[in-house]
Amino acid sequence: MTTITATEVKKLRDQTGAGMMECKAALTEAHGDFEEANLILRKRGLASAAKKAGRVMTEGLIGHRVSPDHRDGILVEVDCESDFVARTPDFQQLVEDVITEIERAGDAASDSWLADPNGPIQKRVAAGIAKLGENMAVRRFIRFAGQGPTRYVGQYIHIPAGGKIGVQVEFSGVDAQVAAREGFLTLVNEIAMQIAAASPAYAARTAVPAEILDREKSIYRAQMEGQNKPPQVIDKIVEGKLGSFYSQVVLPDQPYIRDPKTTVADVLAAAATSLGAPVAITRFARLKVGEAV
Hints:
alpha+beta; Tetrahydropterin Synthase, Chain A; three-stranded antiparallel β-sheet; globular; single chain; Helicase, Ruva Protein, domain 3; 4 domains
């Protein structure tokens, strides 16, 4: 029996617009021959959905769910073609159902699980396409879980953007007493809004990959070629430019959106003092519908 891979099924689906299950069945019947599988789908009237598959999905929603104890959280991007469909109860229910499936799968949820034509996500998406008449896809998801009793996961959905930008941020050093203190929830919301607005890439300078730092340094040094500056001066200038780079991509180094004269690190330090605990950001995620990844 010919083994049909998820990649082959997706390829046929992209070509024909037929559902994942139908594509796998056609490929199995055709023993992996794409032309024959295409013909099978056409004969069954299932390839007529190609117009849907060829349309670009630039709309959708960022779904979100956090556990009652705020130890676990899920963000998911579900795409469709039109804002009209994204606003329908059926599409919003699809988003909720997808989150439930991710929650149910737990650690088994992965990219391959997401793309599995026989898996729960693709089945739900296929049903959504059939009911609402638009191309749809669960593009990606972020799941934070199992990081210990003093971790706190907060979320923020940017409503002015139509629910198309979502943030998930994890704090350490947060027990039940800290979480209940006045000002903590405000801090969580402010940091999440910072991430939504400023789109940092890293939670700390140490998280920036060495190859990226080397690339930036080489660019800065190249900019100073032919200026006949002493090596120690060049090194100092490079470090200065690197500081500017950090202020763009590293969350604690970014200017605070409420007061650009203050950094996010300053905000965290002040919060740690007022809360009486060394609260820190361990990781975060920012999803925006349709963005390049």
